[in-house]
From TrEMBL:
The lineage of its organism: Bacteria, Pseudomonadati, Pseudomonadota, Gammaproteobacteria, Lysobacterales. Belongs to the UPF0102 family. This is UPF0102 protein FQY83_16625. PANTHER family: UPF0102 PROTEIN YRAN (PTHR34039:SF1). It comes from the Bacteria. NCBIfam families: PRK12497.1-3 (NF009150), YraN family protein (TIGR00252). SUPFAM superfamilies: Restriction endonuclease-like. It comes from Luteimonas marina. GO terms for molecular function: nucleic acid binding. InterPro entries: Restrct_endonuc-II-like, tRNA_endonuc-like_dom_sf, UPF0102_YraN-like.
Amino acid sequence: MRSRGAGVEAAAREHLLGAGLRMLAANAAARFGELDLVMLDDDTVVFVEVRYRRSARFGGGAASVDAGKRRRLVLAAQQFLAMHREHRDAPCRFDVVDASGDPAAPQLRWIRDAFRADDA
C-alpha cells in the first residue's frame, strides 16, 4: 500500500514538474497531518494533496478530500509556512491530483485551486 502511494505521488510530482511547478517539499510532516507535495507555481506556494482510487465509481480521489481533510491540510499548511518563513507572505493555493487506474501508470487529473483555506 505504501509503495503504491509513493509511486502515485511520484507520477503526480513528475506531472506537475513537467507543467512548470518547482518542488519545495514532499511528504512534509506536520502536527496535523502530512502535506504530500509543496511546490511553487511562479511565486505561489501550492499545497498538493494526491489522492488515488483504482476506480472513480464512488467519486474518485478528489471526492475523498472532505471538510475534515481540508481543515487538516490548511492547518498543516499554516504550520509549514510558520516553519518556512521565507514563504509566509507568498500567495498560496490548494490543489488536488486525482489519480486512478493502474497505480504503476495512473491517470492523473490535476485540479488547480481545488479549495480555499476559507472553505475549510
